[in-house]
Amino acid sequence: MSREAPTKVRLLSLKKSLSIAQSVHKILKNKREIILLQLNMLIDAAEKARKNLEESLREAYRSLDIARMRVGEMKLEEIAFATPSHLRLGVTRKLVMGFTTFSLHIKEEAPTTYGIEGTSILLDKGIENLQRSLEHVLKLGELESAIFRLIEELKNTQRLINALEYLIIPRYQKNIKFIEEVLEETAREEFVRKKMQKKGKEREVR
After folding, report:
1. Other CB atoms closer than 10 Å to residue 31's CB: what's the count?
2. I need a surface site. Which of 49, 120, 129, 166 has the fewest CB within 10 A?
3. Going residue by residue through the chain (206 aa), what tens digit of pLDDT does each one get?
4. CB neighbours (10 Å) of residue 158?
5. Does domain 29-159 have CATH number 3.30.465.10?
6. Sign of CA dihedral 138, 141, 147, 148
7. Nearest C-alpha neighbor of 132 from the set 58, 44, 81, 47
8. DSSP class of residue 114?
9. CA 184 to CA 191: how far, in whole Å?
10. Could you count the other beta carbons within 10 Å of the beta carbon of residue 123?
11. Rounded to two decimals, what is the model's pTM?
């Protein structure tokens, strides 16, 4: 592949391109740091949501086990079959680090379908903890989705940084160095040529 003519105009153009590439490189490195900070925050939040979910489920099953012993397994199954198995969820768009992610929330909770007669307060507590667990599930899903999106964004950002560091910027620097060396050599040759011309004229005068 042939090089372009090593001129001062080309040198100035390359230096301008190099400066832009270095600025973009700096911006991308700053972006990478922000993404890493955001990732750490989301990972901590996801870990907290996971622990909350585990605690809610433990409490729910503990209450339901005791309620089953008090009201009987048949009564508990009767209540379970009568309870609606679907929930209405709402979706909210959120912007995180320049990309869109989604937040889920319970739009309408399932109504209570059993009376207080023949039941236990522990059943109410167990159902309440199960509903809370579902909220933690939605929160955890939202956080993990955002984490995966940020990881992809981090990978893309790192690929651009690597391309600038190992390909684009070194290529500009190499071409700039080549043209500078050629121009310096040309300037030296021109200086020697003019000096020789001057000496030749001085000999003619003598």
Report:
1. 17
2. 166
3. 445 678 999 999 999 999 999 999 999 999 999 999 999 999 999 999 999 999 988 888 887 787 777 777 776 677 666 666 666 777 777 776 566 777 777 766 555 555 555 456 767 777 777 778 888 888 898 889 889 989 999 999 999 999 999 999 999 999 999 999 999 998 888 777 777 776 666 666 65
4. 14
5. no
6. negative
7. 58
8. S
9. 10
10. 21
11. 0.72
Let me know: does 126 contact 76? Beta carbons within 8 Å. no
Q: CA-CA distance, 56 to 49, in Å (whole number)?
A: 10
Question: What is the DSSP code (8-state) at residue 166?
Answer: I
- CB 87, CB 58: distance < 8 Å: no
Instruction: Report d(CA 163, CA 116) in Å as an integer.
Output: 67
User: How many CB atoms neighbour CB 157 within 10 A?
Assistant: 18
Match 């397994």 to its residue by tokens. 73
Among residues 138, 118, 121, which one has the least CA distance to residue 53? 138
Given a contact cutoff of 8 angstroms between Cβ atoms, the answer to whether 46 and 146 are in contact is no
**Using CA atoms, how far apart are residues 10 and 15, in angstroms rounded to an integer?**
9
Q: Domain-by-domain residue ranges, the chain?
A: 29-159
